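Quick check before the chapter quiz. The format below is the same one you will see on the exam, so make sure you can read both the input and the output lines.
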Amino acid sequence: MSHHTETLVIGAGPAGLTAAYLLSKRGRSVAVLERDSDQVGGISRTVSHNGYLFDIGGHRFFSKAKAVVDLWDEILPDDFIERPRLSRIYYRGRYYAYPLKAFEALRNLGVFTSAACVASYLYARARPVREPQTFHAWVRNQFGERLFAIFFKTYTEKVWGMSCDAISADWAAQRIKGLDLGAAIRDGLKRSLRLRKRRTSGGPVIKTLIESFRYPRRGPGMMWEAAAAKTRAQGGRVLLDRGVDGLSYDAGTGIWTVSAKRGDGSRETYTARNVISSAPVRELVDAIRPRPLSTFHARALQYRDFLTVALIAKSNTDFPDNWIYIHDPAVQVGRVQNFRSWSPEMVPDAGHTCLGLEYFCFEGDGLWNASDADLVALAKREIGQIGLIDPADVVDACVVRQPKAYPVYDADYAAHVATVRRELERDFPTLHLVGRNGMHKYNNQDHAMMTAMLTVENILAGARRHDVWRVNEDAEYTEAGLSGAQEALSSERLVPRRVA
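Here is the expected output.
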């Protein structure tokens, strides 16, 4: 038996559920197929373990895009809390505030190293690498070789499992955009001297320098559980335990036929006029029949996987950081999340703490395949090495593996994505790619949502009025000379009335 819907959405993460919510709100027929058998939200879900709640990576709710903020408020009107933002860098036994506090960094690094960093920075600015192609060259140009080695190299290579010379400069330009050393030092001096005034204007904000953010009181999963519930209430279907493994398109009728496999081995078939995919590009293209010519390019796209070891420990001491970046090469852990600092409701027992140790890996490698017991033992040993809690105080633990957490920006990724995109847009006019893995763009959930919002507008208009690929990592959208989030997003031509 085949189930029919006007629009079929693959994946119930932020992009997929945003699209489904907005389409169902307009009375359109929509169904979402999600591989996970237990919950929606994708990488933005909230995991529960014996009453303790934690994120897969930590998700700040901050956006320059008013339309996105308004949609968050519409879906989850009563459950946001305002949280202070604090994160630090751990390097060679010392902690550095992030963003920079100038005098603290000087004291921690020492006069000689600090002077060498400044000299290295001045040299790099005077003699930059022309047209930098790699992450290393781009960061060296912006910050100098010494600061690159201290504050970028180790952590970045932990995250990606590859040399900074093999990572595209696109990654740095996107994720460190808007932050230069001069601005950071000026901001750091103000912070160090407590001269920084509370912002009162609506001027531009550098994301890495914001001091607070909003957060659902019981984690980001609240947002996406609410979006799924409201989609269903509006007549949409959100179906779990459906892994899409086949798509075919009839150009004559304009109808898609999509097959999905359930955990028990049974199979379901769906037909639809439109398909919105937030599935990894590699998986999507592999599932299309007959196989697209760009299959080789899709298969060349790489992903970085991720696992969290949550340690629950007896502890009367707490630290204020939301998370700490671990730049020390002596340990494998890349980042430590402090879930009570995200929201007190994440940790139900006031006498305990819950820390998430994040390890970046490749599916199938030694870390990924290690037993939960071995991973917990590693995490306990390393958290003791860093000195955040005593391993003897750990009373419970949980391991969560997240495949395809990050699309990899290697030297060839952009050419592969462009080739796949060209063919899919030419041959499949009603196939729409959205979200992080759907577009192979490592961006935040507000970006994923904006790509879905514009895609919904395209479907309602029956034409690709908006180029979703022009949404940048701040979820800004630029077209025909319009630039900046407020200008673009307040234009009725670009944003649906129901969202703005």
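If your answer matched, good. The chain has three domains: 2-47+219-301+411-489, 101-197, 303-407.
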